[in-house]
Inverse folding.
């Protein structure tokens, strides 16, 4: 099957018009298909991380981040649903088998007949979407696999201009936000949405164009708060904290023109970057290219980083999905490493409220699909002080763990309590990470990994609705890296399960090593 009409030039008015026409089909598709488990549908999963290459290229095992959405293979439990999963490099059959064996209600052989995996056979660091678009014969294969485009949609990790082009060339809509609205999820756009939603945010300034604006904004912050010790400088399109840097005011003059001059002189040598390998020359050039914001650092002896996840459906309705406490690392604790669900009982309903208020504004602006709201929280007196810091207008690091829990258990999120209940009424929680990384794990294959966990009865069990589910298995032997979701009755038990699993993997990786190795 090939395109029967000329392909619009990427970014052209014709492409925008064609994309709008495709997106206009989504509400009817949503009403006709989504509520009915037996309705035929095709879901094309595009796990491309379409971000600025200089920001994400430092992710260890980057090509295998495309495996994080393999939890969507569990859609195959719907007996008339087809899934087309697109990747840069081929998925090993053992990894596909691992997910299909997690399915309940259908034989894995039945599910496999409805699964199509298509690979570019291209391990370069470019985005998956760009690799697909430059291969017309591969695009023909995808169109042929889709069949009737009126029963199909794209599910993407990110939705940028490249994904819009892909959707138009495939002739199917995206269940995700129009790239024309991407600014709503930028660092500056997030701050503007927070104000409109009446959500508290840190003191700061947005729409900065270059490092000269950064110095001016930092001087303004210090002028408003002479006790301010630190501030965060953020690239407009930074991902998972990798575009952030911290500036300290130690030794700064008290104010006046000398303060801004001191900041300008200090920035090149004293700005501390969250991303390994980032330097002033690269950061300042990226800032001139994309701009960014400056925010006051929220100080506190104890600080947490909760987040809320919501969804806006094609009919414009908001749905609360989850709250999490994020696990952060990096030099100053701004790089996403993992999460626990649900967020702490002390404030999870506060985070729900913030997410809902933001979601209602985003819905009015025409946003669509999943989004996340990141918050910084510190205890003040008998309560908590919350400051919203970022909107991720896409899937994120908390998306696939929650989808895994949802698909495995058939449970539901309870907005009244902010918890998740399985059909028996019991609560379930989890500890999840994408960043379990130890060089010695390269001695293990995915098959070894599953054997170890099954032998010690930690593998997820459908009867008990507890256990460990792995992801990014393809990164194990090559990088010593993998992800996992540990499901149990409480976050404390889930974290204990994680610790037990790590100890098992450590022992398995050490077996057969020479003495002193």
């Amino acid at each position: 099957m090939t395109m029967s009409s000329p392909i619009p030039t990427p970014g052209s008015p014709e492409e925008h018009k064609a994309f709008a026409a495709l997106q206009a089909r989504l509400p009817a598709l949503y009403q006709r298909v989504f509520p009915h488990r037996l309705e035929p549908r095709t879901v094309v999963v595009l796990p491309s991380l379409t971000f600025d290459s200089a920001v994400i290229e430092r992710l260890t095992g980057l090509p295998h981040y495309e495996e994080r959405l393999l939890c969507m293979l569990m859609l195959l439990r719907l007996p008339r649903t087809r899934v087309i999963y697109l990747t840069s490099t081929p998925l090993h059959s053992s990894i596909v088998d691992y997910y299909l064996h997690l399915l309940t209600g259908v034989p894995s052989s039945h599910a496999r007949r409805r699964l199509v995996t298509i690979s570019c056979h291209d391990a370069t660091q470019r985005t998956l979407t760009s690799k697909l678009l430059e291969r017309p014969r591969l695009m023909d294969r995808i169109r042929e696999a889709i069949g009737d485009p009126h029963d199909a949609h794209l599910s993407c990790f990110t939705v940028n201009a490249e994904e819009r082009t892909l959707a138009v060339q495939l002739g199917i809509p995206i269940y995700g936000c129009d790239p024309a609205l991407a600014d709503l999820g930028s660092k500056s756009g997030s701050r503007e949405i927070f104000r409109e939603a009446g959500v508290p945010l840190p003191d700061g300034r947005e729409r900065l164009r270059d490092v000269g604006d950064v110095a001016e904004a930092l001087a303004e912050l210090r002028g408003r708060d002479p006790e301010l010790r630190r501030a965060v400088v953020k690239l407009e399109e930074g991902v998972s904290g990798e575009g952030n840097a911290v500036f300290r005011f130690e030794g700064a003059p008290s104010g006046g023109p000398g303060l801004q001059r001191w900041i300008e002189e200090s920035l090149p040598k004293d700005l501390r970057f969250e991303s390994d390998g980032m330097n002033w020359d690269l950061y300042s050039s990226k800032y001139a290219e994309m701009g960014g914001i400056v925010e006051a650092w929220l100080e506190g002896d104890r600080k947490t980083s909760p987040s809320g996840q919501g969804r806006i459906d094609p009919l414009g309705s908001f749905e609360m999905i989850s709250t999490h406490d994020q696990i952060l690392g990096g030099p100053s604790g701004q790089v996403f490493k993992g999460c626990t669900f649900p967020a702490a009982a002390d404030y999870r309903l506060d985070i729900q409220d913030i997410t809902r208020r933001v979601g209602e504004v985003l819905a009015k602006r025409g946003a669509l699909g999943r989004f996340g709201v990141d918050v910084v929280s510190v205890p003040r007196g008998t309560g908590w002080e919350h400051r919203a810091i970022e909107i991720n207008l896409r899937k994120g690091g908390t998306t696939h763990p929650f989808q895994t829990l949802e698909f495995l258990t058939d449970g539901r999120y309870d907005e009244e309590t902010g918890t998740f209940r399985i059909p028996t009424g019991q609560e379930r929680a989890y500890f999840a990470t994408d960043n379990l990384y130890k060089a010695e794990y390269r001695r293990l294959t995915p098959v070894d990994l599953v054997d170890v966990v099954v032998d010690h009865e930690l593998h997820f069990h459908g009867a008990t609705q507890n256990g460990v589910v792995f992801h990014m298995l393809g990164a194990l032997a090559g990088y010593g890296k993998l992800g996992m979701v540990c499901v149990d009755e409480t976050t404390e038990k889930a974290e204990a399960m994680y610790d037990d699993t790590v100890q098992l993997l450590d022992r398995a990786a050490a077996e057969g090593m020479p003495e002193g190795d």
Remarks:
- The first strand starts at residue 41 and ends at 46.
- The first helix runs from residue 13 to 23.
